[in-house]
Amino acid sequence: MSTAPGLEPAVLGPAGEPPAPLGRGTLGRQLVIRVTALVALAAVLLSLATALATRQLLLQQVDKQVDAVSAGQRGGSPSGRPGDKDDIVQVGNPRDTIIAAFGADGTVLESRILRRGYGEPPALDDATNASLAALPVTRDKRSVEVAGVGHYRVATYDVTYQLTNGSGEVLQGRVVVGVPLAEVDRLLAQIIGLETVLSLLAVLGALVAARAVVLRSLRPLNRVAATAQQVSQLPLDRGEVALAVRVPPADADPTSEVGRVGQALNHMLTNVEAALEARQASETKVRRFVADASHELRNPLAAIRGYAELTRRSRGEMPEDAAFAMSRVESEAERMSRLVEDLLLLARLDSGPAIEVGPTDLTELVINAVSDARAAGPAHSWQLDLPAEPVVALGDRHRLHQVVVNLLANARTHTPPGTRVETGLEVRDGQAVVTVTDDGPGIPEAIQHHVFERFTRADTSRVRAEGGASGTSTGLGLAIVAAVVEAHRGHVTVSSRPGRTTFTVWLPLAAVPSAPPVSPFAPPVSS
Q1: Computed from CA positions of residues 220, 225, 228, 233, in that sequence, does the dihedral angle turn out positive or negative?
Q2: Engineered SS bond to 171: which of 161, 186, 264, 469, CB 3.0-4.6 Å?
Q3: Whole-number Å distance between alpha carbons of 469 and 478
Q4: Smallest Cα–Cα separation from 147: which of 126, 127, 177, 175?
Q5: Rounded CA gap, 452 and 481, in Å?
């Protein structure tokens, strides 16, 4: 079954608006965040691997330069230095290359930093020499920070010098060769900066692409959720229910995960619709039976009450047991008549009440109901709290009077003598509000949510005034109140605790016609 024409599914949020597709807590938001996080992680790992590999390649090139410089410095010169000053400045050596020779006791034999061009290479200062002399002797290349000159790739190795001054003296020492890493550091900084920019662009692109793909992929699921949301907002507790809405066939294809959910939802809605139709048919039969039975019982009960009343004249001549039995027959017949009338009223309300809606003065109605309650229960204290201006509601006068009478009768029946019952009337939030409050023992919390259901009683805590005798309540008074108020498009609530119980009835106000404008030429009205 397809969606009914003109019935478009819509998912509504708490404020009555459709929730954002990527709002907080949604599956779409989680998917976008996770996909973007995975892309960001991949970009970071790839950038890190690229930077490390590039650094390794650059260092290998620098190591070759260190080896080339070191190869030219392994033999001694006749002057007793690691090499002649004219030989130190070799064509092909990288700019700012460091060559330093130290004796076995740490004496500086030679220390120069090679510059481009000709002439004497500048000597290194004492701080730089001390930093180089502290390096351990090893042929492994290492990257160190040389004081005064910067970041270098250095190699340190032992060397033997034989003096050429005729003495044949041999000197033991070590040579430190260093190639600057400034160019390598600059290239790595550029590569890392470029990779950072590319990674940010990749993450941003992944965010945009993931958002578009997720939104498009989740459209069928959102349509299925919209259908379920629309069905969940239908009143399914009573009355005839039409479940015309279904998931579209395109979203109920069992070949996909979402399609299987949509198909299952359609099957469930079909089953629910069949169950609701069976329930409605059963309720209709029960209402018809209750209405027919109540109607048919009215005449026999009226006859029983009439015959019982006829015996009043001769009850003095009857035996005491017979007179008591006839009085009980009359009392129970009257109680049963009230029960039958209440059942008949509820059956009529359930089948669609025919109420005469019109402007009703609630102020006058409340005053009359409280006056009747005062006459019926003089042992209670009856109070009124009315506004200065009349309150006019839209409803059936007789039915609304019955609502107030039932609430007052409930307070009188289920509270002890001396209880204070206050009836209030006001206009609140654009509606007429009638409240009935008593300071009795209260309604047990366990049954507060069921007080408006039929045959619900709270006699265990709210006792009857007339000697504590119970059993005269039919349990239908508050059910009639709820049914009548609901028929008027209003609602009734209850709040109760020991010492204070309040029933609140909300009814729509009647539109007050505006007074016609007074013509300035109209003659004055004499009093």
Answers
A1: negative
A2: 161
A3: 20
A4: 127
A5: 8
Interstrand relation of 381-385 and 108-113 (parallel, antiparallel or unpaired):
unpaired
Give the span between the Cα atoms of 474 and 93, in whole angstroms: 113
Give the three-class secondary structure for 38. helix
CA distance 253 to 90: 80
Query: For strand 170-180 and strand 98-103, is the pairing parallel, antiparallel, or unpaired?
Result: antiparallel
pLDDT-derived band at 365 (thresholds 50, 70, 90) equals very high
Q: What is the pLDDT of residues 440-465, one digit of tens each?
A: 998 888 888 888 887 676 554 444 44
Tokens representing 61 are: 């090139």
Stretch 393-400: mean pLDDT = 89
> 320 to each of 1, 311, 326, 394, how far by Cα in Å?
73, 13, 10, 53
Separation CA 111–CA 116 (nearest Å)? 16
Average pLDDT in the chain: 79
* In the chain, % of residues over pLDDT 90: 26
Residue that wins the pLDDT comparison between 204 and 335? 204
pLDDT at 161 (0 to 100): 66
The predicted model scores a pTM of 0.49
Nearest Cα neighbor of 443 from 452, 434, 433 is 452
**Domain annotation for the chain: domains and CATH numbers:** 67-183 (3.30.450), 234-352 (1.10.287), 355-464+473-508 (3.30.565.10)
**pLDDT reading at 289 higher than 80:** no
Cβ contacts of residue 206 below 8 Å, gap of 6+?
35, 36, 39, 40
